[in-house]
Fold:
Amino acid sequence: MIKSGDLNSLSRKILEPALDSDVYVIFGASFIKGWLIDFLVKRKAINIHMGMSPYYRGSSCNFWSVYDNNFHLTGATIHMLSKGLDSGDMLYHVAPTTKGCSTSFDFTMMTVKSAHESLVSRIADKSIFSFRPVTQNKSQAIRYTRNADFTDDIAKSFLERNLSIEEIEEGLSKNKDSIELYKPYYRLADD
Structure:
């Protein structure tokens, strides 16, 4: 069984069957290092970052955007994998939606579904390969978080707020034009 962080300790020989591909998509991996990051960057691997870069980078980004009441910055960034954490050139953003959501947890998880749907669609129709990546403007960062930032006290204060979908929708409506998303994908389906 492979545990979090084990990927970097696996040999090329063990990973070789998985590395025989035309397209490489990274999602939910720990920080990739060594020969594997070199291999994936050289082959233009695409990373799904669950957060709106460059505003939120690091861990639990969509939690932090909701915690900060920046609902309009809850989503995903599809970017080129790089040797830095969530710092690759951006291909596009996945915009937030409350369609089909009844809780703040649903809202953040819908971004996962939307990110995957968008990437599958854009790989299938080959449009992703014509996107011109843009460099992230790191001066726009709001938070760069690590797992240690997510404490019991933070979780408790968030849960005590008991945000409703209506509050999230109101926040989205107020801030919808406050930032410009890069080539945004908007989820249209309700399922």
About this structure: The chain has a mean pLDDT of 91. The chain is about 30% helix and 10% strand.
